[in-house]
């Protein structure tokens, strides 16, 4: 049960707005904080049967056909232009004041003029699947933040999306994927609760959303690769399970889980949890919702054992079978795939222990 990420995922806790400067968005004079109460919508989704997965810290991607063949798409939200953004922020403040005053008087409303109110996007851009559509004109409706989640094929701008391009070989329709494995790898290595870096056909990922993580993404919280030899990987949303998540779900127990007070290793050393429910809904909790820091390791300080992300503690196996008969010129054009080909069937103690450079491979 893996649900694709086609928009913003709701927090599992009920959230409220506080009149304090946002820690997430510069210039925003309010912040959204989580209470200790599980939201009613989350409770209605039967969380007891949901699958708890690790929220990876990267950038969202999507595999979908473009110009007659499968392609990797990058997340690109369409946002208000400067003039309409100013008008929308004024409306948001009026709406918060209205709520704070017991909803007295007429409820403030905002009417979008699409596409005039929005910034320009490439002609190949498309809105995400779960975006609401105005039935009167067929236009997408911005969400509560004034954004329209969407996608753009990475071929639109090869320079801007160079790290996206590093995880695919477009001509051969291949992608480099980090996935979980439980049991023996194809080489016979024992990989209980391990990871596999595998080259897969894009056809195996058709219609799926994935997270791109690595050296040049979001400050590289997992410590992958290096400046001289970057490492980037795709991971299908919902594939990597979060371990030992407490049930029933209560704020105190989840808070303790993130701090590893359950004494079951470092499984709480994650950015967050995403619950995939049987009714196709998803809910999340981020460390920031609980007042906890992320990344665990603050730059400029020595890394301690307790700061190692859980993702970096699992055994890693390489499977690059699909690369073995590919023309070397194609692989030389993408040094990352060249490394992976030479890593075929090798096994490492963790992502942190593998040697990621052409000379060592």
From TrEMBL:
GO terms for molecular function: ATP binding; RNA ligase (ATP) activity. Its cofactor is Mn(2+); Mg(2+). One of its GO terms (biological process) is RNA repair. Its EC number is 6.5.1.3. Pfam families: RLIG1 (PF17720). It is an enzyme of class 6 (ligase). InterPro entries: RLIG1. Functions as an RNA ligase, in vitro. The ligation reaction entails three nucleotidyl transfer steps. In the first step, the RNA ligase reacts with ATP in the absence of nucleic acid to form a covalent ligase-AMP intermediate and release pyrophosphate. In step 2, the ligase-AMP binds to the nucleic acid and transfers the adenylate to the 5'-PO4 terminus to form an adenylylated intermediate. In step 3, the RNA ligase directs the attack of the 3'-OH on the 5'-phosphoanhydride linkage, resulting in a repaired 3'-5' phosphodiester and release of AMP. This is RNA ligase 1.
């Amino acid at each position: 049960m893996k649900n694709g990420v086609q928009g913003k995922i709701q927090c599992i806790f009920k959230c409220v707005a506080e009149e304090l400067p946002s820690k997430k968005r510069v210039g925003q004079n309010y912040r959204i904080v989580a209470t200790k109460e599980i939201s009613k919508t989350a409770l209605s989704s039967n969380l007891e049967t949901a699958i708890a997965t690790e929220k990876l810290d990267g950038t969202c991607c999507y595999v979908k056909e473009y110009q007659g063949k499968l392609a990797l798409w990058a997340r690109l939200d369409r946002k208000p232009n400067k003039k309409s953004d100013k008008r929308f922020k004024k409306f948001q403040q009026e709406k918060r004041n209205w709520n704070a005053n017991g909803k007295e008087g007429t409820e403030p409303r905002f009417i979008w003029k699409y596409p005039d109110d929005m910034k320009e996007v490439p002609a190949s851009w498309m809105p995400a699947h779960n975006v609401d559509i105005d039935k009167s004109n067929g236009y997408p409706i911005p969400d509560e933040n004034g954004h329209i989640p969407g996608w753009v094929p990475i071929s639109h701008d090869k320079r801007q999306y160079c790290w996206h391009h590093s995880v695919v070989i477009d001509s051969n329709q291949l992608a480099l994927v980090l996935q979980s494995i439980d049991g023996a790898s194809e080489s016979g290595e024992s990989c209980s609760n391990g990871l596999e870096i595998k080259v897969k056909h894009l056809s195996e990922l058709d219609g799926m959303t994935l997270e791109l993580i690595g050296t040049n993404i979001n400050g590289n919280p997992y410590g992958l690769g290096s400046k001289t030899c970057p490492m980037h990987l795709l991971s299908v949303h919902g594939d990597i399970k979060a371990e030992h998540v407490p049930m029933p779900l209560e704020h105190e127990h989840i808070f303790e889980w993130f701090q590893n007070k359950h004494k079951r290793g470092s499984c709480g050393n994650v950015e967050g949890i995403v619950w995939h429910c049987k009714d196709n809904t998803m809910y999340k909790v981020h460390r920031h919702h609980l007042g906890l820091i992320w990344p665990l390791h603050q730059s400029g300080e020595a890394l301690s054992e307790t700061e190692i992300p859980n993702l970096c503690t699992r055994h890693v196996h390489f499977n690059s079978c699909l690369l073995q008969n590919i023309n070397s010129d194609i692989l030389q054009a993408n040094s990352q795939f060249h490394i992976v080909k030479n890593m075929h069937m090798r096994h490492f103690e963790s992502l942190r222990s593998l040697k990621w450079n052409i000379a060592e491979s």
